[in-house]
Amino acid sequence: MKRGREFPSVTSGQLHSMSPIPSPTLSTPSPRVNEGMSQGTPACPSSCASTSASKRGRGRTRGVSLEKSLGSGSAKLSVHIPEGECGGVSSTAAILSTKIGMLVRGLIPISVNKWVDVPTEVKEYIMDRVLDQFDLDYTRHEDKRSEQNKKNRSKLTVNHAAGSRSFQRTRACMERMDAFQRKCDLEGKTYTEIEVYSEILGKKSGYVRGLGRAVKPPPSSTLTTQSSDLQHQLAKARDEIEAMRAAREKDLQEFAKKQAEMEATLRDHREEQRVEQERIRLEQEERMRIEHEERIQLEQERMRKEQERLRAEISKELEKKMSSVMEKKMSDMSKRLFSQFGGSKR
Predict the structure, then answer these.
(1) 130: how many CB neighbours lie within 10 A of its CB?
(2) Which helix or strand (DSSP H or E) is residue 224 part of?
(3) All residues at 6 or more sequence positions from 207 whose CB lies less than 8 Å from its CB, including other chains
(4) How far is residue 267's CA from residue 290's CA, in Å, rounded to a whole number?
(5) What percentage of the chain reaches a pLDDT higher than 70?
(6) Better-scored residue on pLDDT, 306 or 231
(7) At 134, phi and psi to the nearest 5?
(8) CA-based end-to-end distance of the chain
(9) Of 191, 195, 200, 326, which sits most exposed with the smallest number of CB within 10 A?
(10) How far is residue 318's CA from residue 48's CA, in Å, rounded to a whole number?
């Protein structure tokens, strides 16, 4: 895409006649507005000028796609904006956004932060320039046609649900359906879905009416044979289903019986286990009691023997002590007697 500058489609006299745009931070109009309105080219700040000397920027949006879309004709581009929305949804919505961006960047300084701060004259000028090249369609032609069709439909007194088929053809089809129903009741036969469609809607080579071309009609000579075969197969299938149901019920009964027997056996086994465990517990308690009594008896016997041994030892000690005491006393007495009797002889 070629790069360059595009002058806004507005004269300097028209823009100088507008009131200056107030800036929320600056007391004087922006240089970009003054130069853009007087010379037709948006001004660039000093920082941009110093940067462009060392590095070439992207450049100003030229609106080439808009010029290509408009071409040499005078027809406007149509942009559909749905009801309740603020943006277009058609293929020309991006071109409209580009055009609005070009006008805003060329007419409104960058220091303006809110759309409400832009003067009404500038807003109207931007809107006029947009409407010169775009047709903003808020209501589609299809919606208008739909509203008209709704009004026409509401005027109907009888609902028509037969589609493109006329009432005459519908009546004839209903009569054939009633006649076929009476025929089935009299003959007592059962027809397939394909046979019913063929009889009522008529036969057509290659497909069955009402079922589409995916369903192929059977040959007319085999319809009766096929119907009887189907009835025979249906009866056979019913018998098989009944036999399977009876066998299944029998299996269920046997299974329930076996399950009851297993539960009874399990209960008996659990009872036997409980009785056996109780017997083992009682035997263990009895054995422990007997062992305890035996240990008590042995301990008592040991204590008795120990007491007897202690008594015997004590008796022996006493006898020894008594004999020694007696001997000592006897010797003392004999000494006293000897001393008494010996002294008297002298």
Answers:
(1) 15
(2) helix 223-345
(3) 213, 214, 215, 216, 217
(4) 35
(5) 70
(6) 306
(7) -130, 145
(8) 178
(9) 326
(10) 136
Q: Is residue 172 very low, low, confident or very high in pLDDT (cuts 50, 70, 90)? A: confident
The rounded distance, in Å, linking the Cα atoms of 262 and 268 is 10
Q: How confident is the model at residue 31 (pLDDT cuts 50, 70, 90)?
A: very low
Is 2 within 8 Å of 61 (Cβ atoms)? no
Who contacts 98 (Cβ-Cβ below 8 Å, separation ≥6)? 61, 63, 65, 66
Tens-digit pLDDT profile for residues 36-54: 443 344 444 444 444 455 6
CA distance linking residue 145 with residue 227, whole number of Å: 52
336 burial class (0-12, 13-18, 19+ CB within 10 angstroms)? exposed
Highest-scoring range by mean pLDDT, 143-147, 183-187, 271-275: 271-275
Give the separation between CA 322 and CA 269, rounded to whole angstroms. 78
To which residue do tokens 């949804």 refer? 89
Sorted by where each begins, the domain ranges of the chain are: 12-49+57-144, 167-218, 237-334
Q: How far apart are CA 49 and CA 43, in angstroms?
A: 10
Tokens at 341, concatenated: 């009797």
**23-32, 229-238, 266-275: which has the minimum mean pLDDT?**
23-32
59: left (phi over 0), alpha (psi -120 to 50) or beta: left
Q: Do 85 and 93 meet the contact criterion of CB atoms below 8 Å apart? A: no
More confident residue, 15 or 204: 204
pLDDT in tens, 52-71: 556 777 777 777 777 777 76
